[in-house]
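Recall from the previous lesson that a structure prediction takes nothing but the amino acid sequence as input. Here we apply that procedure to Glutathione-disulfide reductase from Roseomonas elaeocarpi. The sequence below is the only information supplied.
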Amino acid sequence: MADYDFDLFVIGGGSAGVRCARISAGHGAKVGIAEERFWGGTCVNVGCVPKKIMVQAAEYGGWADDAPAFGWDIEKRGHDWNVLRQARDGEVARLSGIYRRLLEGAGVTVFEARATFIDAHTLDVGGQRVTAANIVIAVGGKPVRPDIPGVDCGMISDDLFTLEKRPERIVVVGGGYIGVEFACLLHALGSEVTLVYRQKLPLRGFDLELREGLAEALTAQGILLHPGEDLESLGSAGEDGRVVTLKSGQILETEAVMLALGRVPHTEGLGLEKAGIEVDRKGAVLVDEDQATSQKHVFAIGDVTDRVNLTPMATNLGHALADTLFGNKPRHASYENVPKAVFSSPPIGSVGMTEDEADARGKPAEVFVNRFTPMRHAITKRDGRRSVMKVIVDCETRVILGMHMLGEDAPEMMQGFAVAVVNGLTKEQLDRTIGIHPTAAEEFVTLRSPARRVGDPQAAEEDEAA
Ligand SMILES: Cc1cc2nc3c(=O)[nH]c(=O)nc-3n(C[C@H](O)[C@H](O)[C@H](O)COP(=O)(O)OP(=O)(O)OC[C@H]3O[C@@H](n4cnc5c(N)ncnc54)[C@H](O)[C@@H]3O)c2cc1C
Ligand SMILES: NC(=O)c1ccc[n+]([C@@H]2O[C@H](COP(=O)([O-])OP(=O)(O)OC[C@H]3O[C@@H](n4cnc5c(N)ncnc54)[C@H](O)[C@@H]3O)[C@@H](O)[C@H]2O)c1
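The prediction returns the following tokens.
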């Protein structure tokens, strides 16, 4: 290793890269890292953190509306976007600074520059030649901008964090995580929101019953839904207006457009071909189970591999790789049963198989479901606040295959239940647990009769015969 400048060089100072660099240095490796834009990457600067602060701001609007039902003499007079911007941007700057200081404190050499490959062991880092025995690609992803006329009339999620004024009317295109979260938070802050998406329901990949419940909740709170629609073109109208043309021919006039159409790996121009590193059609770096690329000393972690594109997955991958390479503790981060949350209103928390996935196994599973109005909203009578809880159980082993919730506090609740599900919790163990009363969470430990059975080959044959 003495022939190289570094034992490890990390490209990208986001969730995956910072963790890998910091832990590797802690294990004694000589580490360098390059970041071209912002320490902490997407999550800290234009992702989870500023988004969650905006979600929290939005929640106060609903609580202010609810308060009179509990006797509070409160009048909601409006929301000051600039106060929120300053609070959010201040917290983001604070966290980003912490990320940089953590690296320096661990003894990592930091470069505020773009890094690209010259060959499989050599990088150009802001004009400087740097060599490394091992290289980690942790460059993340970037928002998709579709190839349609007038695409520049639309904002991407990064732009929402620099807006000086909240748009009064906005069309959000895309029914994935970002589209749904921003539609909800902008609506709650006072914007008139239209959500356009391709499928019949938003959030493909989540449990169908939760998706149905969420679509009902979105409509109940006044978000205008356009399901089954695709984008044809964007254009301007007058000084500040925007026109969205859908493939069905429908035209929507609005003040602003947000495109939330997915993210692609940030590998363009990285020089991967010079290092002999293979990518897939979307530009995602191909890796084996050790996160090694087609060059065994070059690794890729986080969103750049386009597998589970979530921050805790990225940090886990970074930590596991550092432990494996320099900590004498070889291990893999598991892609199985990764808990997920959508910070919609109400939010979603989910771990394990959906009902459709359990059904498709062809092995019998029981599905327990509960729908209820949380106690708070029995008083407030606020629309669109019904909760849905679901537990899916393998009939033979009694192991819980999936747990899902749409409802207030679902992400907080699901983190705890996920610990148990990941460790093989059975339905009987869940039932043995005494509830905490009065909470919504206790509904998970009091589900007694299954709503239905799925995945039963015999039942499917009987259905067909009938
Ligand atoms: C709006 C939004 C909300 C999100 N909300 C959540 C959430 O609530 N929960 C959750 O778990 N996940 C969320 N995510 C996803 C999460 O942000 C990502 O999964 C996570 O940031 C991936 O980490 P990463 O290290 O792989 O990539 P990134 O965080 O994107 O970091 C990559 C870094 O590499 C830098 N870089 C790129 N190319 C180079 C180069 N050639 N040289 C030097 N530096 C380079 C980039 O500037 C960037 O800082 C959200 C994402 C978005 C966009
Ligand atoms: N709460 C969280 O954990 C969270 C929040 C935000 C983002 N994220 C991560 O970031 C990723 C990116 O988020 P995202 O919402 O951009 O992507 P996504 O993949 O979740 O959703 C993109 C949506 O856009 C649709 N789409 C694509 N092209 C379209 C077109 N031309 N017209 C209409 N619809 C089109 C897709 O069908 C899909 O439903 C997520 O997949 C997730 O991994 C996580």
